[in-house]
Amino acid sequence: MSYTVSFCLHAYNGSNRMGDRNEKTRRSAIIGGTLLRASIFFLILLSTFLTAAFTSAQDWVRTGSGLGVERVRLAVPDFRPSTNDAQNTALLKTFNDTFWNDLDNSGVVELVSKSFYPLQIPGQPAEVTFGLWNSPPPNAAMLAFGNLGVAAGKLTVQGWLYDVKNTASPQVLGKQYADVATEEAARVIAHKFADEIIFRLGGGIPGIAESRIFFVSDRTGHKEIWAMDYDGSNQRQLTHLASTSLSPRISPDGSRMAFSSLTKSGWEILMFSLDLNRTVNFQRFGGTNLSPAWSPDGTRLALSSSRGGNSEIYVCDANGGNLRRITTSRGPDVSPSWNRKTGAQIAFVSGSTGLPQVYTMEADGTNQQRMTDQGYAVSPNWSPNGQFLTLAWTRKYGPGEPGSSDIYLMDIASKQWVQLTHDGGRNDFPSWSPDGRHIVFQSHRSGKDEIWMMLADGTKLHQVTFTGSNTQPNWSWK
Amino acid sequence: MKAKTLKSVAIVVALAAVMMLGACHKKKAPAPPPPPPPAPSPTASISVSPDTIQKGQSATLTWETSNATDVSIDGIGAVQPSGSQSVSPADSITYHLAAKGAGGTQEATARLTVTQPPPPPPPVASGATEEDLFGQNVKDIYFDYDKSNVRPDQQASLQADAQFLTQHAGINFTIEGHCDERGSTEYNLALGDSRASAVKNALAALGISASRIKTISYGKEKPFCMESNEACWQQNRRGHFVYQK
Fold this sequence. Notes:
heterodimer; A: alpha+beta; Rossmann fold; Neuraminidase; 3 domains; 6 helices; 30 strands; B: alpha+beta; Immunoglobulin-like; CATH 3.30.1330.60; five-stranded mixed sheet; 12 strands
């Protein structure tokens, strides 16, 4: 049962001891097995007891939902202008909005509402009056502040993170950034400083503010692959094939993006170089080739190919060579996803028993395990810590069944699951953030397919794209 | 010869005498009452509906007369004073109605244009024609939800397709696998591939060379019907035949 506890943020758990956690999960699964379908709230209450009972003191874990655990109260007053340049106003707004948004979405801090802030906002360490911040109304534990200024076309940002309860030695972090004075630079600096703070307050796990999301958009009239910053800004078109391109998957090092595209000879895996900003040569396999997936070391791809007559999972080298089939089931096999921690297993979707279900297997195709017990289950995505799958699942499916496709989280060892989205229309293609705290997915809840994001416990749900139809998001590995 | 001529002359003279007598008698008879109003002139109208037909089709001729004793239509003959009749001429024709009565003769006409039917498809000769025949004869194969097996009620279509394709051995073609909008993009592409392959394999089992057949899956990327109901979904779950030029 404690999987709901351990699925996320091993905040101060420096050593990542997989064995301990599995043991814990097994024991609690036996105890809590009959309570599978209890509400999440109940699970979490129960898990608090189980955690207390079975875990040693140093194995402190945060719940992904933050329930029962106080997150750090962080005050983030707007940064102050440090020069009189005309560009300051616009760049300050970009910086402050981006910075606040990054911290607010991070899931590791609780931002103190700006309405509680004192009138005097510090831009420099000397201007901090601790008593105004460390006691109510703000009652903040931490304070992030700083200044931004443009001089001679150059942008300089100074930022500090203060532990305002520790007045004797308050500084946790002091940073200075310099770049050209552009909106883009202001946004990047905000991301970098936010990531520094999240790294320190979030248990040493790097933040995601500089990560990117690859997705499919039809806004040019064709389905092309696009990329954007994780917060939806800086959306840009990558492919210009004027065909139908689907299923973008970025390589672990971020240099190449594999995708599936309808070519003159059918559906083939194509490769786009982010360094060269164009598609590069890749082996054509023949048949219908879909859903490429990178192994975590970036040396291999898993994909679905019907070159042998039936859609099966194949594995090949990163250049398309050495292709070999690893499944032999009767129905269609598609949508592989590697165990991102070990690279030793692959999750995939198979229609071998009728409606598609999610399975796992060893990377050589042996030891297939069916993970989902009913309904229509697709689009598995393996978590960065190797412990969880997120998937799209319509548990009640078929004529007369008003089921909707929702995003679920499943503990792989126990096959226990939690539903993350509720009654929000068709949701599909979940993809983990690099820090394992967030899930991006496509949803029809606004009336058309758009990209949405949430914390891995289903909270902090928000829409990221708004133009055209946007689908199949894939989060970068770092 | 002479006797015959004489006899003819005698008959003519006698007839003339009779007619003159008769005429004289008739003219005299109605004398006493005031002279009758002159006999009203006949009226006549004729129409044809529709006024343009294709050869082989028929149209309805409708006419109406009044004050006429002798009504006839060219090409049809004497007819009732009013009436209608179905006609089916081979060529365009003008129907000419003559209504004769005491008050004179009235005429009316109606034109019926007969167009030649479009020429029948010329005998198999060019590739374009084979494409037409392909489009007319080869029926798509429909599938059940989430299934890729050719169901029993599609066997007749499949047999007919195989028969046509056997008779037209020069035709190469593509089978497109399509799915309805439900379900996930990637799985539907794989499912569409299975459907296209199922149709290909079924045709191959009926003797159609697999080398003539290409398959492609469109999943749910190219729906035939955009509504969200079962009728529409069934339209979208199919193996669709496309002629390969």
